Amino acid sequence: MSVFNQYRRQFATASLALAAALIAPAALAEYNPKLLRIGFQKSASVLSLLKAQGTVEKQLAGKGLDIKWVEFPAGPQLLEGLNVGSIDFGYVGEAPPIFAQAAGANFVYVGYELPAPAAEAVLVPKASAIRSVADLKGKKVGLNKGSNVHYLLVKLLEKHGLKYSDIQPVFLPPADARAAFERGAIDAWVIWEPFQSAAEKQVDARILADGQGVVYNHAFFLAEREFAEKRADVIRILFDEAHKLGQQIKKDTRAAAAQLTTLQGLDPAVIEQALNRYNLSVRPIDDAVLAEQQKLADTFYDLKLIPKAIQVKDATLPARR
User: Is the sign of the CA dihedral 282, 284, 287, 291 positive or negative?
Assistant: First the structure.
């Protein structure tokens, strides 16, 4: 089974499970001091490798914690999982937390990765007549609603004199978007790595524009609020291990790509290119990155993509406010 078919099945399964959790009489799970549930995506290379290598388990061996890894197909679904109490800690792109906070999700920002603007892009078929973002006017553009690429699309259109209403957004998860892209059902596809590199190398997709000079494309580490308040020691260890592994990946990207081949179901050359577009340096949350995140929130509210204005700092621990 290809990685894209796996992704399609995972998306459907996760969506059904989360829908059931949201309508259950007792949907919210209580904080369990003896359990750490880490939400991750297959495309999140650092967490995928940490899981495979068992590093977190070794470092937390003396903390009296059982560790469970929960896989999600994309950031919005991971945030839903965090909100209904099925995970304690997770990693997502910059847009999903905005939508989740606007919907009332109870999480806090605890850390982030330095910018990776080249790790997301608008793709078009190699032979497409579309040569500029301005050419997207009136065109069907596929994207995962509420993901980091949603903001990229908005800012690229703005840079090229278009409004969001000038294009026809088609909301699809990555696997379905790739299928639509291949059969010509959409004119362009906004996507993140490693799916971006896979499309470039496997179906002759061409980068129309990426995030360089337009967005930061931070990735964030989030935690369930009570877990963040009570287990700062665990979060520090998770940060340390993620940062160390990220630096190891940058030192020997080819070796990391070889390890990830089986985990992600992609060719090593695809993964290596994708990894080279990420920074992979982890930092605790700070005021500067929260200010950038506030710009996303304000943009999405102005476009009526979220139902109310939010203050990003409300989704931090009191010491940061």
Answer: positive
Model confidence pLDDT, tens digit, residues 92-122: 989 889 999 999 998 999 999 999 999 999 9
Task: Give the residues across from 113 on adjacent strands.
Answer: 219, 282
Do residues 87 and 39 lie in contact, with contact meaning Cβ atoms separated by under 8 Å?
Answer: yes
Q: Report pLDDT digits (tens) over 162-210.
A: 999 999 999 998 889 999 999 999 999 999 999 999 999 999 999 999 9
pLDDT value for 308: 95
The C-alpha atoms of residue 241 and residue 18 are separated, in whole angstroms, by: 29
Residues with Cβ < 8 Å from 23, sequence gap 6 or more? Answer: none
Cα(145)–Cα(124) distance, integer angstroms: 19
Q: Which of 219, 225, 191, 221 is nearest to 205 (CA)?
A: 191
* Cis peptide bond prior to 194, omega within 30° of 0: yes
Q: Please say if the pLDDT value at position 3 is more than 60.
A: no
Helix, strand or coil, per DSSP, at residue 54: coil
Q: Which two tokens stand for residue 148?
A: 């980091």
**Are 87 and 24 within 8 A, CB to CB?**
no
Per-residue DSSP letter, 197: H
Question: Which secondary-structure segment (H or E) carries 70?
Answer: strand 66-72
Sheet with 35-41: strands ordered across? 66-72, 35-41, 89-93, 219-224, 107-113, 282-284
CB 106 within 8 A of CB 225: yes
pLDDT in tens, 223-250: 999 999 999 999 999 989 999 999 999 9
The first and second tokens of residue 126, run together, are 């190699």
Taking the CB of residue 215, how many other CB atoms lie within 10 A of it?
A: 25
Cα–Cα distance, 227 to 108 (Å, whole number): 10
